[in-house]
Amino acid sequence: MQHHLVVQNSILVRQLGFTEYESTWHAMQKFTAERTSNTPDELWLTEHPPVYTLGLNRKNVRLANESNIPLVLTDRGGKITYHGPGQLILYVLLDLNRHQLNVRKLVSLLENSVIKLLAEYGVNSSAKTDAPGVYVSEEKIVSLGLRIKNNYCYHGLSLNINMDLKPFEAIDPCGYVGLKVTQTKNLSIDTNVKKAGEQLVDILLVQLADGQKHD
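Above: the chain's sequence. Below: its structure in token form.
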């Protein structure tokens, strides 16, 4: 893996650049299987070539007919989504015990980090209790899916920055029929995948540190 590595707040932040979905997913599985209570947490920033991923909730899922985009059956929570160039992926490899987090708190932490990021650009966004992710005026801008094993988590979130949104039309994003998606470019936010990734990590690290102070 080609990557740029920095350590912030004792968490390793890896800028992976472009990576294949499957190899990155298997690397997360391996990292999680081999880690111990002493292993530093890691955040991975990446972009993937076009791919549909189908989570563990596979009931009544409408699959895309676009055969030129591969479909990967993966082990995160949730249903189907799309990843492609111009979308920021943040994978969170955290020890939940270390941060006194449960799944619900972690989901809220990730959602709130993006909400704060968008607010810095004057864009109001919100989360929904029944449908994880972040929404701007009912249009989804962030998809979120996690896997927890032995209180260690992997997978994470995808934030649409400047991408071709058309592949989303071939599916029901995250299982919701007719759900519209949006991206920062359509909201007149001047950013790119790398810049947004760095800002998001900074916000998330502050939120993680604050959470530990309050416990």
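The helical segments are 21-34, 103-119, 193-214.
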